[in-house]
Amino acid sequence: MNEQNRCIDASDVCRPGNERIARLVRLAARGFNRSLQIRLNTEKVTFGQWIFLRILWQEDGLSQRELSERAHLTEPTAHTALIRMEELGYIVRRNVEGNKRRQHAFLTPRGWELRDQLEPLAVEANEIAVAGLSAEEQRILRKALAVMIRNLENDEADAARRGVRVPPTKGNPAQ
Amino acid sequence: MNEQNRCIDASDVCRPGNERIARLVRLAARGFNRSLQIRLNTEKVTFGQWIFLRILWQEDGLSQRELSERAHLTEPTAHTALIRMEELGYIVRRNVEGNKRRQHAFLTPRGWELRDQLEPLAVEANEIAVAGLSAEEQRILRKALAVMIRNLENDEADAARRGVRVPPTKGNPAQ
DNA sequence: TATCTAATATTAGATAGCTAACAATTAATG
DNA sequence: CATTAATTGTTAGCTATCTAATATTAGATA
GO terms for molecular function, please (chains A, B) (predicted)? Predict the structure, then answer.
């Protein structure tokens, strides 16, 4: 087994071809999660909260629906995360424009403070992750991932159109 | 927003640099999961079972410990998955070589049968995922992912050596 | 205005992953 | 041989995600 593939086990190579990429992506996602979590946990922010905070730091005052869409998470997931974040004092949730349905989330001073504390940690995690990759390799990596995401989203949409109910992906499957 | 980035939301570009890759990897892993699950579900095999089946198809009779390591999942996870797979008749679990600790898993005829039924579905999912990527792009994608995985594993190991307890990644964070 | 439809949020329940603690067996050591 | 350490498996309990079903409000239409 060569150096480059040190971390890849036999189950990845039992088939030549593309199957292996699914495995690599899964492991990379797991690694990113854990690397970020090591750092974020020092500030007592969970990974899910981090996702929503990042979106709010860029655009404060989004509704729960908008947040769940941008985070690519379901509404109940956003709901419980936002409730928790309000309890922790990172955000407040309230209606705006006289619309009693939409619940908008607004960062508190503490929520903004977290940005300065947490972002350097995340940047560090990502610099570590791509160490040793050239700019060109990183560019192709980004492009390839974006293409795959689009392909897979279309695949899921096609299945939905064909009436195939997309089964739940519960638990922690991407680890 | 250009075509290539259609599926990427604003939270990905709020920082130039590497952070975006973590996001792309997460979304790609999610897409792979769902794409596979759409297909596997037609045969009533969960994603977790699929992971262990793939390993057994390549090397039958592995112990629970070996299976959990190759799958990059914890032992309790392997344990419950294997118990379930035995109930479903895909494998049998038994001791070998007079060692009463090790529980080895052996595929049943039904377990082997699943290989022929499921592998084409997974190959299809992966062909869809990488459609539009040249062979060279796929090669660089594989290499880049492998490098990142190694970097992130080393990062986690370093943290462990420094005495940083790696916090759990519960729930479904990679979605 | 009244009624229907769409949008949004909430609640309830299920599940696969995780950690931690325990049990049982095997190997190592005095 | 007895005791300790290492290995392996098991059980218990937690949690973030998901789907499904429900409630509430806003908008559209007769």
Answer: DNA binding; DNA-binding transcription factor activity
Task: Give the integer Cα–Cα distance in Å for B2 and B125.
Answer: 26
A37/B92 Cα distance (integer angstroms): 37
Quick one: CA dihedral B57, B171, A101, A64, positive or negative? Answer: negative
| Mutation target vs A (from B30, B60, B70; most A CBs, 10 A cutoff) | B30
User: Does residue A143 lie within any of the structural domains?
Assistant: no
Q: Does residue B38 lie within any of the structural domains? A: yes
Residue A20 sits in a domain whose CATH number is: 1.10.10.10
- List the beta strands (DSSP E) in chain A: 91-96, 99-107
Is the separation of the CB atoms in B40 and B46 below 8 Å?
yes
Contact B47 A169 (CB under 8 A): yes
Give CA separation, A77 vs A55, A69, A92, A142, B92, in Å.
15, 11, 17, 27, 37
pLDDT in tens, B74-105: 999 999 999 999 999 999 999 988 888 999 99
